Amino acid sequence: MVLNNKELIAGTKLPDLKRIVTQEHINLYAEASGDFNPIHIDSEFARQTPLGGTIAHGMLILAYVSEFMTNSFGQAWLTGGSLSARFKAPAYPGDTITVNGQVTDVRKEDGILSVNCDVLCHNQQDDPVIICDTKVKVTADEDSG
After folding, report:
1. What is 5-22+56-139's CATH topology?
2. How far apart are CA 80 and CA 75, in angstroms?
3. Does the global pTM surpass 0.85?
4. DSSP-based helix, strand, coil % in the chain, nearest 5
C-alpha cells in the first residue's frame, strides 16, 4: 500500500513487513552477491564460531528494508530513496524478521516533500537487528507512488 500525501505527516506508522530467514535464502543471496564467506553458507564452520551457526548476510536483511520502503513509497523510494543503517545483531536461519517504522519529519521545498523515517528490523525476540534512518523525496502535488 503506497502512502498518499495526506498520510505523510510525522508519526504516521508504515505497514509492517515480516520475512522468515531461511538457509536457502542465505545460499541464494550468496550466489547472487558472490559472497561465499563460510559464516553464511558452511554450517560446520559456522558452528565453531562465537556466533554458533550460519548467519544471514547483512545486505540480505537490508533488502527487506528496501522492500518495506518500496511498499510504502513505491517508485519514489526506488528513484530517490536513501538510508543510513546500523547493524546491531546477526539474523539466523529460522528468525522471523519484522521491519517497521514511522515518518519522523516531512519538509516541503519547491514542490517536493522530503520524508524522513525511522526504520527498525527486529527478530522474533524483539532484538534489534538493523536500525535505519531513511529519506525519500516525493512529489508534493501527487500521490507518493
Report:
1. Thiol Ester Dehydrase; Chain A (3.10.129)
2. 8
3. yes
4. 30, 35, 35
Is residue 54 within 8 Å of 26, Cβ to Cβ?
yes
Distance CA 28, CA 26 (A): 5
* β-strand partners of 103: 117
Q: What are the per-10-residue average pLDDT scores of the chain (145 residues)?
A: 83 97 98 97 97 97 97 94 97 98 94 95 98 94 48
CB 137 within 8 A of CB 128: no
Domain boundaries, the chain: 5-22+56-139
Which residue reads 500521490 in cell numbers? Answer: 143
